[in-house]
From TrEMBL:
Recorded GO CC terms: membrane
Name of the molecule in the record: Phosphonate ABC transporter ATP-binding protein
GO molecular function: ABC-type phosphonate transporter activity; ATP binding; ATP hydrolysis activity
Alphabetical keyword list: ATP-binding, Cell membrane, Membrane, Nucleotide-binding, Translocase, Transport
CDD domains: ABC_PhnC_transporter (cd03256)
Keyword Transferase: no
The gene coding this protein: phnC
Sequence similarity: Belongs to the ABC transporter superfamily.
PROSITE patterns: ABC_TRANSPORTER_1, ABC_TRANSPORTER_2
Residue span, ABC transporter domain: 2-245
Superkingdom of origin organism: Bacteria
InterPro entries: AAA+_ATPase (IPR003593), ABC_transporter-like_ATP-bd (IPR003439), ABC_transporter-like_CS (IPR017871), ABC_transpr_PhnC (IPR012693), MetN_ABC_transporter-like (IPR050086), P-loop_NTPase (IPR027417)
UniProt cross-references to Pfam families, sorted A to Z: ABC_tran
Length: 268
Protein backbone atom coordinates (compact mmCIF):
# COMPACT_ATOMS: atom_id res chain seq x y z
CA UNK A 1 0.00 0.00 0.00
CA UNK A 2 1.29 3.44 -0.97
CA UNK A 3 0.22 6.06 1.57
CA UNK A 4 0.56 9.79 0.94
CA UNK A 5 -0.09 11.83 4.07
CA UNK A 6 -0.35 15.61 4.22
CA UNK A 7 2.07 16.04 1.31
CA UNK A 8 2.77 19.54 0.03
CA UNK A 9 5.48 20.99 -2.18
CA UNK A 10 6.34 24.65 -2.54
CA UNK A 11 8.69 26.23 -5.06
CA UNK A 12 9.60 29.61 -3.56
CA UNK A 13 6.27 31.29 -2.92
CA UNK A 14 4.37 28.96 -5.26
CA UNK A 15 2.52 25.95 -3.85
CA UNK A 16 2.60 23.22 -6.52
CA UNK A 17 1.02 20.47 -4.38
CA UNK A 18 -1.07 21.24 -1.30
CA UNK A 19 -1.90 18.82 1.51
CA UNK A 20 -2.49 15.68 -0.55
CA UNK A 21 -3.74 12.59 1.30
CA UNK A 22 -4.16 9.36 -0.69
CA UNK A 23 -3.96 5.63 -0.21
CA UNK A 24 -3.20 3.57 -3.29
CA UNK A 25 -3.78 -0.17 -3.16
CA UNK A 26 -1.49 -2.61 -4.99
CA UNK A 27 -2.56 -3.39 -8.56
CA UNK A 28 -4.50 -0.17 -9.17
CA UNK A 29 -4.42 1.68 -12.50
CA UNK A 30 -4.67 5.32 -11.44
CA UNK A 31 -5.12 8.26 -13.76
CA UNK A 32 -4.04 11.64 -12.39
CA UNK A 33 -5.95 14.31 -14.25
CA UNK A 34 -6.31 18.07 -14.15
CA UNK A 35 -5.44 21.16 -16.11
CA UNK A 36 -1.92 22.28 -16.90
CA UNK A 37 -0.08 23.42 -13.76
CA UNK A 38 -2.43 21.54 -11.40
CA UNK A 39 0.51 19.76 -9.74
CA UNK A 40 0.29 16.32 -11.40
CA UNK A 41 3.98 16.01 -12.37
CA UNK A 42 5.17 17.34 -9.03
CA UNK A 43 3.04 14.76 -7.23
CA UNK A 44 4.43 11.92 -9.37
CA UNK A 45 8.00 13.14 -9.02
CA UNK A 46 7.65 13.24 -5.25
CA UNK A 47 6.58 9.60 -5.21
CA UNK A 48 9.96 8.45 -6.53
CA UNK A 49 11.79 11.30 -4.80
CA UNK A 50 12.92 13.20 -7.89
CA UNK A 51 11.41 16.07 -5.89
CA UNK A 52 11.20 16.08 -2.09
CA UNK A 53 8.02 17.14 -0.33
CA UNK A 54 8.11 20.37 1.67
CA UNK A 55 5.76 18.72 4.16
CA UNK A 56 4.16 15.35 4.78
CA UNK A 57 5.20 11.75 4.34
CA UNK A 58 5.02 9.11 1.65
CA UNK A 59 5.22 5.51 2.79
CA UNK A 60 5.16 2.18 1.00
CA UNK A 61 4.21 -0.95 2.93
CA UNK A 62 4.90 0.93 6.13
CA UNK A 63 8.37 2.23 5.10
CA UNK A 64 8.76 6.02 5.09
CA UNK A 65 10.21 6.60 1.62
CA UNK A 66 10.60 10.33 2.29
CA UNK A 67 13.38 9.44 4.79
CA UNK A 68 15.37 7.11 2.49
CA UNK A 69 18.97 7.96 1.62
CA UNK A 70 21.84 6.36 -0.37
CA UNK A 71 21.33 2.78 -1.57
CA UNK A 72 17.92 2.54 0.10
CA UNK A 73 16.77 5.53 -1.98
CA UNK A 74 18.23 4.00 -5.16
CA UNK A 75 16.40 0.76 -4.37
CA UNK A 76 13.15 2.68 -3.93
CA UNK A 77 13.62 4.47 -7.25
CA UNK A 78 14.10 1.08 -8.92
CA UNK A 79 10.92 -0.22 -7.28
CA UNK A 80 9.06 2.84 -8.41
CA UNK A 81 9.98 3.05 -12.10
CA UNK A 82 9.33 6.28 -13.99
CA UNK A 83 8.26 6.70 -17.62
CA UNK A 84 8.61 10.14 -19.15
CA UNK A 85 6.92 12.00 -21.99
CA UNK A 86 10.24 12.20 -23.88
CA UNK A 87 11.12 8.51 -23.32
CA UNK A 88 14.61 9.30 -21.87
CA UNK A 89 16.40 6.60 -23.87
CA UNK A 90 20.08 6.80 -24.83
CA UNK A 91 19.69 7.39 -28.55
CA UNK A 92 23.12 6.17 -29.69
CA UNK A 93 22.75 2.83 -27.87
CA UNK A 94 20.82 -0.15 -29.18
CA UNK A 95 17.38 -1.04 -27.87
CA UNK A 96 18.52 -4.09 -25.87
CA UNK A 97 21.19 -2.09 -24.04
CA UNK A 98 18.65 0.61 -23.25
CA UNK A 99 16.36 -1.99 -21.69
CA UNK A 100 19.31 -3.47 -19.76
CA UNK A 101 19.83 -0.05 -18.16
CA UNK A 102 16.76 -0.96 -16.11
CA UNK A 103 18.89 -3.72 -14.50
CA UNK A 104 21.64 -1.33 -13.36
CA UNK A 105 20.48 -1.40 -9.78
CA UNK A 106 20.57 -5.21 -9.72
CA UNK A 107 24.17 -5.75 -10.89
CA UNK A 108 27.54 -4.95 -9.29
CA UNK A 109 29.03 -1.49 -9.83
CA UNK A 110 31.90 -2.98 -11.90
CA UNK A 111 29.47 -4.86 -14.18
CA UNK A 112 27.36 -1.74 -14.52
CA UNK A 113 30.33 0.48 -15.44
CA UNK A 114 31.68 -2.04 -17.94
CA UNK A 115 28.18 -2.92 -19.14
CA UNK A 116 28.89 -6.62 -18.63
CA UNK A 117 25.41 -8.01 -18.65
CA UNK A 118 24.73 -11.59 -17.62
CA UNK A 119 22.82 -13.99 -19.85
CA UNK A 120 19.90 -13.92 -17.43
CA UNK A 121 19.66 -10.14 -17.64
CA UNK A 122 19.79 -10.25 -21.43
CA UNK A 123 17.11 -12.94 -21.55
CA UNK A 124 14.94 -10.86 -19.26
CA UNK A 125 15.40 -7.75 -21.39
CA UNK A 126 14.53 -9.65 -24.55
CA UNK A 127 11.47 -11.17 -22.89
CA UNK A 128 10.35 -7.66 -21.88
CA UNK A 129 10.71 -6.48 -25.47
CA UNK A 130 8.71 -9.51 -26.61
CA UNK A 131 5.89 -8.51 -24.25
CA UNK A 132 5.43 -5.41 -26.37
CA UNK A 133 6.11 -6.97 -29.79
CA UNK A 134 9.40 -5.17 -30.36
CA UNK A 135 12.01 -7.92 -29.78
CA UNK A 136 12.86 -7.65 -33.49
CA UNK A 137 14.17 -4.12 -32.80
CA UNK A 138 16.66 -5.26 -30.11
CA UNK A 139 19.77 -4.50 -32.22
CA UNK A 140 18.62 -1.13 -33.60
CA UNK A 141 19.78 2.23 -32.32
CA UNK A 142 17.13 3.71 -30.06
CA UNK A 143 17.11 7.01 -31.97
CA UNK A 144 16.11 5.22 -35.18
CA UNK A 145 12.74 4.20 -33.70
CA UNK A 146 9.35 5.90 -33.91
CA UNK A 147 7.98 7.63 -30.81
CA UNK A 148 5.59 4.77 -30.05
CA UNK A 149 8.39 2.20 -30.37
CA UNK A 150 10.67 4.30 -28.14
CA UNK A 151 8.03 4.56 -25.47
CA UNK A 152 7.51 0.78 -25.54
CA UNK A 153 11.29 0.39 -25.07
CA UNK A 154 11.05 2.74 -22.08
CA UNK A 155 8.20 0.62 -20.68
CA UNK A 156 10.27 -2.56 -21.20
CA UNK A 157 13.17 -0.87 -19.39
CA UNK A 158 10.82 -0.04 -16.51
CA UNK A 159 9.53 -3.63 -16.45
CA UNK A 160 13.00 -5.20 -16.03
CA UNK A 161 13.49 -3.06 -12.93
CA UNK A 162 10.90 -5.47 -11.45
CA UNK A 163 9.05 -2.52 -9.95
CA UNK A 164 6.08 -2.51 -7.60
CA UNK A 165 4.84 0.74 -9.10
CA UNK A 166 5.19 2.38 -12.51
CA UNK A 167 4.84 6.15 -12.63
CA UNK A 168 4.06 7.47 -16.10
CA UNK A 169 4.25 11.24 -16.56
CA UNK A 170 2.19 12.12 -19.65
CA UNK A 171 3.54 9.03 -21.47
CA UNK A 172 1.57 9.63 -24.65
CA UNK A 173 1.80 13.42 -24.89
CA UNK A 174 4.07 13.38 -27.94
CA UNK A 175 2.46 10.43 -29.76
CA UNK A 176 -0.07 10.16 -32.58
CA UNK A 177 -3.42 8.42 -31.91
CA UNK A 178 -2.30 4.98 -33.14
CA UNK A 179 0.84 4.99 -30.99
CA UNK A 180 -1.14 6.44 -28.09
CA UNK A 181 -3.29 3.32 -28.09
CA UNK A 182 -0.29 0.98 -28.42
CA UNK A 183 1.45 2.63 -25.45
CA UNK A 184 -1.68 2.80 -23.26
CA UNK A 185 -2.34 -0.88 -24.06
CA UNK A 186 1.26 -1.67 -23.00
CA UNK A 187 0.70 0.09 -19.65
CA UNK A 188 -2.59 -1.74 -19.20
CA UNK A 189 -0.83 -5.03 -19.90
CA UNK A 190 1.80 -4.24 -17.28
CA UNK A 191 -0.97 -3.53 -14.82
CA UNK A 192 -3.24 -6.50 -15.54
CA UNK A 193 -0.72 -9.19 -16.50
CA UNK A 194 2.01 -8.39 -13.98
CA UNK A 195 -0.16 -6.81 -11.27
CA UNK A 196 2.07 -3.74 -11.13
CA UNK A 197 0.42 -0.57 -9.84
CA UNK A 198 0.37 2.10 -12.56
CA UNK A 199 -0.03 5.79 -11.75
CA UNK A 200 -0.32 7.79 -14.93
CA UNK A 201 -0.67 11.53 -15.54
CA UNK A 202 -2.95 12.09 -18.49
CA UNK A 203 -4.11 15.19 -20.24
CA UNK A 204 -6.88 13.39 -22.13
CA UNK A 205 -9.90 12.74 -19.96
CA UNK A 206 -11.27 10.36 -22.55
CA UNK A 207 -8.18 8.13 -22.27
CA UNK A 208 -8.16 8.35 -18.49
CA UNK A 209 -11.76 7.22 -18.40
CA UNK A 210 -11.10 4.41 -20.82
CA UNK A 211 -8.03 2.87 -19.21
CA UNK A 212 -7.95 3.74 -15.51
CA UNK A 213 -9.94 2.19 -12.68
CA UNK A 214 -9.55 5.23 -10.41
CA UNK A 215 -9.16 8.89 -11.25
CA UNK A 216 -7.50 11.48 -9.06
CA UNK A 217 -8.41 14.98 -10.15
CA UNK A 218 -6.10 17.84 -9.15
CA UNK A 219 -6.72 21.54 -9.21
CA UNK A 220 -4.27 24.20 -7.96
CA UNK A 221 -2.24 21.52 -6.15
CA UNK A 222 -5.19 19.96 -4.32
CA UNK A 223 -7.01 16.70 -4.89
CA UNK A 224 -10.55 17.73 -5.81
CA UNK A 225 -11.81 14.41 -7.20
CA UNK A 226 -10.98 10.84 -6.21
CA UNK A 227 -13.13 8.04 -7.50
CA UNK A 228 -14.14 5.67 -10.26
CA UNK A 229 -14.23 7.10 -13.80
CA UNK A 230 -18.00 6.63 -13.91
CA UNK A 231 -18.36 8.94 -10.89
CA UNK A 232 -16.76 11.85 -12.75
CA UNK A 233 -19.75 13.61 -14.23
CA UNK A 234 -19.45 16.01 -17.15
CA UNK A 235 -20.12 18.91 -14.75
CA UNK A 236 -17.38 17.76 -12.35
CA UNK A 237 -15.01 17.44 -15.30
CA UNK A 238 -15.85 20.97 -16.43
CA UNK A 239 -15.15 22.24 -12.90
CA UNK A 240 -11.82 20.43 -12.96
CA UNK A 241 -10.69 21.67 -16.34
CA UNK A 242 -12.36 25.07 -16.57
CA UNK A 243 -11.64 26.64 -19.94
CA UNK A 244 -9.61 23.61 -21.05
CA UNK A 245 -12.66 21.33 -20.78
CA UNK A 246 -13.48 21.40 -24.47
CA UNK A 247 -9.94 20.40 -25.32
CA UNK A 248 -9.72 17.35 -23.05
CA UNK A 249 -13.30 16.08 -23.19
CA UNK A 250 -14.79 14.17 -26.02
CA UNK A 251 -18.36 15.45 -26.30
CA UNK A 252 -19.62 11.88 -26.38
CA UNK A 253 -17.21 10.52 -23.77
CA UNK A 254 -19.93 9.76 -21.24
CA UNK A 255 -21.77 7.73 -23.81
CA UNK A 256 -18.64 6.18 -25.26
CA UNK A 257 -17.36 4.72 -22.01
CA UNK A 258 -20.69 4.13 -20.26
CA UNK A 259 -20.73 0.56 -19.00
CA UNK A 260 -17.44 -0.19 -20.71
CA UNK A 261 -14.54 -0.26 -18.30
CA UNK A 262 -11.77 -0.39 -20.87
CA UNK A 263 -11.11 -1.04 -24.54
CA UNK A 264 -11.63 -4.71 -25.35
CA UNK A 265 -8.50 -4.76 -27.51
CA UNK A 266 -6.42 -3.76 -24.50
CA UNK A 267 -7.41 -6.72 -22.35
CA UNK A 268 -4.37 -8.53 -20.96
N1 LIG B 1 11.02 23.17 -10.42
C1 LIG B 1 10.06 24.08 -10.32
N2 LIG B 1 10.34 25.35 -9.98
C2 LIG B 1 9.37 26.27 -9.86
N3 LIG B 1 8.05 26.02 -10.07
C3 LIG B 1 7.71 24.78 -10.41
C4 LIG B 1 8.69 23.73 -10.56
N4 LIG B 1 8.03 22.59 -10.90
C5 LIG B 1 6.72 22.92 -10.97
N5 LIG B 1 6.52 24.21 -10.68
C6 LIG B 1 5.24 24.91 -10.66
O1 LIG B 1 4.34 24.13 -9.89
C7 LIG B 1 3.05 24.12 -10.50
C8 LIG B 1 2.63 22.69 -10.77
O2 LIG B 1 3.45 22.20 -11.83
P1 LIG B 1 3.34 20.70 -12.38
O3 LIG B 1 4.34 20.56 -13.47
O4 LIG B 1 3.39 19.77 -11.23
O5 LIG B 1 1.86 20.72 -12.96
P2 LIG B 1 1.18 19.70 -14.00
O6 LIG B 1 -0.22 19.52 -13.53
O7 LIG B 1 2.02 18.49 -14.14
O8 LIG B 1 1.19 20.55 -15.33
P3 LIG B 1 1.37 20.04 -16.86
O9 LIG B 1 0.15 19.24 -17.18
O10 LIG B 1 1.45 21.32 -17.64
O11 LIG B 1 2.65 19.24 -16.90
C9 LIG B 1 3.15 24.98 -11.74
O12 LIG B 1 2.71 26.29 -11.41
C10 LIG B 1 4.62 24.99 -12.05
O13 LIG B 1 5.00 26.17 -12.71
Amino acid sequence: MLAIKGVSRRFGGKTAVADVNLEIAPGAFIGVIGRSGAGKSTLLRMLNRLVDPSEGTISFDGVDVTALRGQALRDWRARCAMIFQQFNLIGRLDVLTNVLMGRLNKVSTASAVLQLWGLEDKAMALAALEQFDIANLAGQRADSLSGGQQQRVAIARALVQEPSIILADEPIASLDPRNTKVVMDALLRINKHFGITVICNLHSLDLARGYCDRLIGMSAGRVVFDGAPAALTADAARDLYGLEAGEVMDADADVKWAGQARPASAAA
